[in-house]
Amino acid sequence: MIEVKQLQKAFGNVNALNGLSFSAPEGEITGLLGPNGAGKTTCLRTIYGLLQADSGEALIDGIDAKVAPLEARKRIGIFPDKFGLYERLTAREQIAYFAALHGMQGAKQAEAVAHVIERLDMTAIADRRATGFSQGQRMKVALAQAIVHQPKHLILDEPSRGLDVMSTRILRDLLRELRQQGTSILFSSHVMQEVAALCDKVVVIAAGKVAAQGTTQELCELTGESALEEAFVKIIGTDEGIAA
Amino acid sequence: MSNPLLIVWRKELRDALRDKRSVMAAMSYAFFGPLLMAVAFFVLISQLTDESDVGINIEGAEHAPAFIAHLQRQGIVEREKPWPDGQQPIVLAISENWAENIAKAKPIEVTLTADFSAQKQRTDINRVERAVQSYSNQLTYIRLQMRGIDPGIMNAIDLVKHDTATKGSRAALLMGSVLVFMLLSVFFSGMNVAIDISAGERERNSLELLLSQPLTAQQLVWGKALAASCFAIFGGILSVVLIPFIFSFLPLHNIGISIALGWQSILLIIALLFPLALFATALQLFVSFRAKSFKEAQTYISFLLMLPMLAVFGVEFSRVKHQALYYLPITGQHQALLDIIKGEALQWLPMALSAVATFALSALLLMLIGRMLRSEKVVFGL
């Protein structure tokens, strides 16, 4: 369970987060939908403790990353905004590195790495160095790094950006499977289709606070529109910065 | 392998070892530096010990055949080849009343014309002067003897020179510059790795994810610092082992110098380089973690390299002698290395204290980097 309570964060004069509150329960996919610059990435960075909120708290299973960052981070898998790979390491080595950082060792580590490689259908590239990987292959490695330690919480920042259809499908299937296993999944996006296709709950963010939340159904009902896109535009009051 | 520090260290080391550029950088400085040095010394020695004839212009040779014969025995002959461009001729002019003045035992005028400021001709000019002087002395002795006077009365004072310079201490003069190579190799060898694991990490967008993993910034920084230090000390060891080896091929005995570093000395030098390797890495990481790209970091670090150079060359050239130098990082190791090579009594306490000070300062720097990486300003460049 990821809970965000009344987060406030200012960079200079700009209020990036302005009393943001929502929760991402277990076994559900929660989508953070918002235009560019709404505060999605800032919110996620605050959850894993890279940014310090001015006030409010972000809890992972009741643990505040501000107070106990390591404890909080042990419980999450992160698929970051930008993922750089170590070009001279093989895919397997990179995944093993992150497994090790999460305290997995020896046979248990090798097994977990092998399992995730198989799950993401990347056996063919597992022992190749990352130089020359396609965007989709890179995404798979980053995804494998995020889930190799079987976290109870998975946070993804704009995961489908720059992915082709096949990669996007793999990603969606994986997220649904993880939801089945009781993982609480939080992902940010500005792509309407993706959110509509995947999310159990949508949290619409605009200007650093929650503009509305609920299932796609509820959002549509709330605004009296039939399509999420229309509902969304109505909620945030503009169609700027949104991809259909 | 459960300690995150060790995990980071192992990963960075593996990553860096696969980077041919980093490995080459670590090796090449330690290898080519001393080699270049050796070539320079080889040229210098062959110039210093050049025993070939000195060719000069002699005017009025016909007046003093015996004198010319003497000069020839001393290796000073009439020049046949033209003077090279940019070199002033050395001219020895013998006055025509030579025979007359010899007969009357009067001073004879012999003029030596040359550019006395020319470094290259310095030894040639000195040899001509010495040859003329020795002929003059011979004449004086003969004249005194002929008059029944003991030539010994000419020497009121017999200055006996006792050269207390041991072979080692004379070598120290030359080795001072070589030492600089040993010290700097530590700074050069780990440089590439240090940049790659700090600014490089940021440039390839992997820093944020790494900082979001369950390890402290301190563990991350120490793991990285130790990996880069391994490269630094590897370069250091390579140069410490290679320098005596390469120099053993030089004809140093011709100029009265011997460089013989026992294995104990070599081990001691390597031990001294260990804290320095960590210090070099800490400094480099401190600078390049602030840089946004590899290139930017390289610029900063090239400025940073001036620091050890200034410290070492400054002390070397200004001949500053102050006890404090023994305790500070860089200069402490420099002084200790000088003592080791000179074969002087080693100051164990200052040596140990400077090692501790170097280590402490490195730890402080690494702590600051760790704190820096917890700052959102530095990480995200806000």
TrEMBL record, chain A:
Membership in a protein family: Belongs to the ABC transporter superfamily.
Residues passing through the membrane, by range: none
SMART domains reported for this sequence: AAA
Organism in which the protein naturally occurs: Pseudidiomarina aestuarii
Entry-linked InterPro entries: AAA+_ATPase (IPR003593), ABC_transporter-like_ATP-bd (IPR003439), ABC_transporter-like_CS (IPR017871), ABC_transporter_ATP-binding (IPR050763), P-loop_NTPase (IPR027417)
CDD domains in UniProt: ABC_NatA_sodium_exporter (cd03266)
Protein name: ABC transporter
Coiled coil: none
Entry GO MF terms: ATP binding; ATP hydrolysis activity
From TrEMBL, chain B:
Any one GO MF annotation of this record: ABC-type transporter activity
Keywords assigned: Membrane, Transmembrane, Transmembrane helix
Gene Ontology cellular component annotations, sorted alphabetically: plasma membrane
Superkingdom, taxonomy of origin: Bacteria
Residues spanning the membrane: 21-45, 171-195, 225-250, 262-287, 299-318, 348-369
Pfam families: ABC2_membrane_2
Name the record gives this protein: ABC transporter permease
